[in-house]
Design goal:
By secondary structure, the chain is mostly helical. It has helices at residues 5-18, 21-33, 37-43, 52-62, 69-80, 84-96, 98-104, 108-118, 127-139, 146-166. 72% of the residues lie in helices and 0% in strands. Helix 5 (69-80) packs parallel to helix 8.
Length: 169
Amino acid sequence: LELDKDIQRAVYATVARVCKWEVTEQLITMYRDTESAETRRVLRCLASNTDTELAARVLDWMMGEDVKLQDKTFILAGVASTGRAGRELAWRFFQDNSRHFLSIFTSGRLLINLVTAAMGQGTANTAEEADMFEKWFRENKVEGVDRTVQQVIEEIRQVATLREKLFPS
């Protein structure tokens, strides 16, 4: 199926969000078999499925050699972007695999991308999440991300405050 490049990303993202595992496997095969960096970027969306069991399988696949290092952070962020359950899954996965992640992402932009993906930047929205992230990074020193962690936590707290004002419990 040939898709116009202008709509390719949107079509794949829409399909990936709700598809069954068999379709996700097809997207994984497309990712694995392509030589095109642009196609790989488009296929990062395969992590955006709202089914957490399927998302967990994608995260397990992501840990293998098939996935380019720079794409791993985008896949983790994709899982976190699917809602509260996805954020919880991505955060747990990061924690469970933090030793491995922090051995391959040691500094620079990729490390920052990893941390912001694990924290669900742009999607996390509760004071509890902010507290949880703050506690983990206080107890697990990660060189070179202090400022990023504080910025993301501050952003989450601002969103949580706004959310509480708009939708009091």
